[in-house]
Amino acid sequence: MTTAAQIQPLTIREVLDLPPLVPLWPAVGRALGLAESTTYQLAAQERLPIEVIKLGRRRMARTVDLWAFLGLGNGEAAGGPAPTASSEAAHESTSLQTGATS
User: Fold this and answer.
1) Cα(39)–Cα(32) distance, rounded to whole angstroms?
2) Closest CA to 22 of 41, 42, 47, 39
3) CA angle, residues 9, 13, 15, in degrees to nearest 5
4) CB–CB of 71/62 below 8 Å?
5) What are 24-44's pLDDT values in tens digits?
6) What angle do CA 13, 2, 20 make, to 5 degrees?
């Protein structure tokens, strides 16, 4: 069992180097500066600030969600979805209505 004094939070570089899907502990818990038991307790209560993905008995989280909560990069830089044709068409339509250009 770990205590708050023993937890070494992840550095920004370590958080940015995480794979796309990470376990709640140690990756998410350490990135948020939480103890292991607190991390799992908050997940069980659905009180973590990011979505928890259940894979069998494992609890995982998307790294982009963690980055977004920590304010590290935007969706595009964090590997978010690329604009779709429909979103580009909507932007173009809005630009035409407002007279804006991109």
Assistant:
1) 9
2) 39
3) 60
4) no
5) 999 999 999 999 999 999 999
6) 35
What confidence tier does 98 reach under pLDDT thresholds 50, 70, 90? Answer: low
The yes-or-no verdict on residue 13 having pLDDT over 80 is yes
What letters, b where the CB count within 10 A reaches 16 and e where it falls short, cover 9-36? ebeeeebeebeeebebbbbbbbbbebbb
Q: Which band of pLDDT confidence, cut at 50, 70 and 90, is reported for residue 99?
A: low
The pLDDT value recorded for residue 61 is 97
The first and second tokens of residue 15, run together, are 């958080």
- Written as one letter, the residue type at 24 is L
| Token pair listed for 40 | 């799992």
For the chain, report the end-to-end CA distance as a whole number of angstroms: 54
Q: Please, are residues 95 and 102 in contact by the beta-carbon 8 Å criterion? A: yes
